[in-house]
């Protein structure tokens, strides 16, 4: 029988057994979560405490597991995008674009340069939105609410741009195989320009508020540090790994969607602690802004989608008037598109690390197997080791700076 | 000097002979098969060898092939990445349907710990020597392994929903 039905003192036997310190002083058990506001999602951590200090811990995950991989095996390819939205919902467009690129790799679809640049823009906007949330909430968790409220209006501005592009804000379901569902309206371009103009001074102010703030530094420096070797072994990717001093970034290692056309730096930290993670993200926001500016400056002319009638829905007015378009429309909506027998792995640099899609097809309308490499599922297992010996309040700051998103972790 | 796939293949065959087989390039990833008994030594070699240097375990996942012969009905798929030469490889281990067992690689890569637990959780594949092999995303009372193909996505007895006209049958949903 499961240990869920047992009384707590038997349930976490391995923690309870070490209830006493060597000197005989008593340890206590603290149940952090599952829905504690400071855990930003549904994680439970059973912590063994010596006063304020964490001696050991055990994490439980899976509270919002929604069987995405199983559902994927039963849905046509285009219906899986909405599942990817709900993984890292702080940067849904990156997941969407990653999924389309995975499919395009499997199907052998070439997308026009313009689409690639447009994708780069939305992915970098999503990265900025993701980092805005993570860094400003780290401020909240260390007691600084102002910065959070101040920069959050710009996440809203980013969402307005998404809204102009695809009609949705948080779970975007953006794009199609081969491109976007419609060309970007003038409103998108003007909102982008406005964002690029207004956001940088605000972000500078936000940085000034925290980066050299004595209280913030005391709360984050040497808190939740991890060495580069340990981080690699634990499968860290993204800003968390770069904060430990390893310059691994999928956008550079394996450029997708024309990232090789842009000139940007990969900020790295040194000590892998909470402060370095914060600084790396801050810097990445500037790099993302620079990438967006370059993409806008170099934006090529051309179509907003690839010419692939097998996969890309025909214009709606044609569906009503021509037989060919009606057939394609029907086949695509029903998911009856030609799919080769193959397998692909496609990684993209998500907001918190290498987001990978491993797709096995069997020629049918659904994937035979689809596995999501969710970065935070893999690196969250290091959490207990990172907080051992630290104060409870440090554990909160560490969790916050790791940018663990429950939706992505639990799939 | 980039690391050529022929170098990987030759080195592996030289050291492991018949334990490694079916080398094939699928899209951008070089793929091969390893017998389940030798996964730990092969992975150790890939990690430690001075030329191969596959320092990063990107991903571990399971696959169920109920239509294959009984010795190959489960697969554990590992993706490894060499960050120095920027080369990815995919390793497949096929397992027996009645007794899906394979050695854990969580001693080599700490990241394998939860990924193997996830694979166990969804496919019932036993990772021998794993420090804490228990369910991770599903609840502990669960008795089945939901990513196996025979596990239906929805209750077949549902009457409130008729999807026959939309390409879905009780078999595929």
UniProtKB/TrEMBL annotation, chain A:
Topology term for the membrane: Peripheral membrane protein
EC number(s) given by UniProt: 7.1.1.-
GO cellular component, one term: plasma membrane
A Pfam entry, by short name: Complex1_49kDa
Reactions this protein catalyses: a quinone + NADH + 5 H(+)(in) = a quinol + NAD(+) + 4 H(+)(out)
Record localization: Cell membrane
Stored InterPro entries: NADH_Q_OxRdtase_suD (IPR001135), NADH_UbQ_OxRdtase_49kDa_CS (IPR014029), NDH1_su_D/H (IPR022885), NiFe-Hase_large (IPR029014)
Keywords from the named record: Cell membrane, Membrane, NAD, Quinone, Translocase, Transport
Domain of life: Bacteria
One MF annotation (Gene Ontology) recorded for this entry: quinone binding
Occurrences of domain NADH-quinone oxidoreductase subunit D (ranges): 141-410
HAMAP family recorded: NDH1_NuoD (MF_01358)
Assembly and oligomerization: NDH-1 is composed of 14 different subunits. Subunits NuoB, C, D, E, F, and G constitute the peripheral sector of the complex.
Function: NDH-1 shuttles electrons from NADH, via FMN and iron-sulfur (Fe-S) centers, to quinones in the respiratory chain. The immediate electron acceptor for the enzyme in this species is believed to be ubiquinone. Couples the redox reaction to proton translocation (for every two electrons transferred, four hydrogen ions are translocated across the cytoplasmic membrane), and thus conserves the redox energy in a proton gradient.
Xref: NCBIfam families: PRK06075.1
Family per record: Belongs to the complex I 49 kDa subunit family.
Annotated protein name in UniProt: NADH-quinone oxidoreductase subunit D
Source organism of this protein record: Flavobacterium limnosediminis JC2902
Automatic annotation (TrEMBL), chain B:
Annotated EC: 7.1.1.-
Family membership: Belongs to the complex I 30 kDa subunit family.
Quaternary structure and interacting proteins, as annotated: NDH-1 is composed of 14 different subunits. Subunits NuoB, C, D, E, F, and G constitute the peripheral sector of the complex.
Role played: NDH-1 shuttles electrons from NADH, via FMN and iron-sulfur (Fe-S) centers, to quinones in the respiratory chain. The immediate electron acceptor for the enzyme in this species is believed to be a menaquinone. Couples the redox reaction to proton translocation (for every two electrons transferred, four hydrogen ions are translocated across the cytoplasmic membrane), and thus conserves the redox energy in a proton gradient.
GO cellular component entries: plasma membrane
Keywords for the protein's UniProt record, in alphabetical order: Cell membrane, Membrane, NAD, Quinone, Translocase, Transport
Membrane topology field: Peripheral membrane protein
Gene3D superfamilies, A to Z: NADH:ubiquinone oxidoreductase, 30kDa subunit (3.30.460.80)
Pfam families the record matches: Complex1_30kDa
Catalytic activity entry: a quinone + NADH + 5 H(+)(in) = a quinol + NAD(+) + 4 H(+)(out)
Disordered as annotated region, ranges: 153-173
Residues annotated as domain NADH:ubiquinone oxidoreductase 30kDa subunit: 33-154
Subcellular location: Cell membrane
InterPro entries, alphabetized: NADH_DH_suC, NADH_quin_OxRdtase_su_C/D-like, NADH_UbQ_OxRdtase_30kDa_su, NADH_UbQ_OxRdtase_CS
GO MF, any single term: NADH dehydrogenase (quinone) (non-electrogenic) activity
The protein's name: NADH-quinone oxidoreductase subunit C
Superkingdom in the source lineage: Bacteria
Lineage, top ranks: Bacteria, Pseudomonadati, Bacteroidota, Flavobacteriia, Flavobacteriales
Basic and acidic residues bias spans: 153-166
Keyword Cell membrane: yes
Major localisation: membrane
Keyword field contains Cell membrane: yes
């Amino acid at each position: 029988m499961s240990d869920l039905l047992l009384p707590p003192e038997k349930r976490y036997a391995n923690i309870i057994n070490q209830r006493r310190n060597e000197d005989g002083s008593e340890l206590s058990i603290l149940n952090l979560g599952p829905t504690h506001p400071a855990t930003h999602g549904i994680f439970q951590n059973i912590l063994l405490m010596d006063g304020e200090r964490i001696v050991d811990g055990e994490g439980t995950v899976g509270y919002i597991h929604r069987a995405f991989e199983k559902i994927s095996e039963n849905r046509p390819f285009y219906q899986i995008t909405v599942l990817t939205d709900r993984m890292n919902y702080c940067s849904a467009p990156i997941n969407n674009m990653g999924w389309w690129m995975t499919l395009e790799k499997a199907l052998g679809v070439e997308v026009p340069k313009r689409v690639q640049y447009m994708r780069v823009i939305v992915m970098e906007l999503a990265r900025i939105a993701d980092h805005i949330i993570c860094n400003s909430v780290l401020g909240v968790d260390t007691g600084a609410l102002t910065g959070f409220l101040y920069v959050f209006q710009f996440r809203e501005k980013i969402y307005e741009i998404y809204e102009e592009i695809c009609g949705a804000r948080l779970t975007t379901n953006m794009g199609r195989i081969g491109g976007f569902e419609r060309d970007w309206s003038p409103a998108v371009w003007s909102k982008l320009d406005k964002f690029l103009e207004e956001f940088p001074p605000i972000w500078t102010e936000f940085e000034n508020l925290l980066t050299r703030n004595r209280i913030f530094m005391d709360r984050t420096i040497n808190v939740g540090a991890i060495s580069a070797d340990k981080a690699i072994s634990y499968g860290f990717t993204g800003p968390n790994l770069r904060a430990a001093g390893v310059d691994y970034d999928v956008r550079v290692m394996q450029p997708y969607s024309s990232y090789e056309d842009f000139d940007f730096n990969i900020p790295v930290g040194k000590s892998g602690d909470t402060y370095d993670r914060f600084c790396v993200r801050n810097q990445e926001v500037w790099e993302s802004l620079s990438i967006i500016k370059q993409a806008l400056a170099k934006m090529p002319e051309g179509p907003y989608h690839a010419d692939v009638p097998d996969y890309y829905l025909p214009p709606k007015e044609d569906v009503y008037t021509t037989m060919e378009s009606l057939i394609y429309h029907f086949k695509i909506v029903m998911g009856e598109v030609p799919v080769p027998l193959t397998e692909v792995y496609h990684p993209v640099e998500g907001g918190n690390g290498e987001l990978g899609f491993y797709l096995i097809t069997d020629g049918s309308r659904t994937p035979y197997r689809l596995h999501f490499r969710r970065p935070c599922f893999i690196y969250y297992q290091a959490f207990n080791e990172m907080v051992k010996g630290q104060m409870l309040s440090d554990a909160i700051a560490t969790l916050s700076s790791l940018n663990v998103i429950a939706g992505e972790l639990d799939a | 000097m980039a690391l050529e796939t022929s170098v990987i293949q030759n080195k592996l065959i030289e050291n492991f002979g018949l334990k490694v087989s079916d080398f094939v390039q699928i899209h951008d990833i070089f793929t091969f098969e390893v017998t389940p008994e030798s996964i730990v030594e092969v992975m150790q070699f890939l990690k430690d060898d001075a030329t191969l240097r596959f320092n990063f375990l990107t991903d571990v996942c399971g696959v169920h092939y109920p239509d294959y012969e009984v010795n190959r009905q489960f697969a554990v798929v590992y993706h490894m990445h060499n960050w120095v030469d920027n080369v990815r490889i995919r390793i497949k281990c096929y397992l027996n349907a009645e007794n899906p067992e394979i050695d854990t690689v969580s001693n080599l890569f700490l990241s394998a710990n939860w990924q193997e637990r996830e694979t166990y959780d969804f496919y019932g594949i036993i990772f021998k020597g794993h420090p804490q092999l228990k369910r991770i995303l599903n609840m502990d009372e669960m008795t089945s392994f939901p990513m196996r193909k025979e596990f239906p996505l929805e209750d077949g007895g549902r009457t409130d929903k008729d999807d026959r006209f939309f390409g879905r049958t009780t078999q595929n949903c």
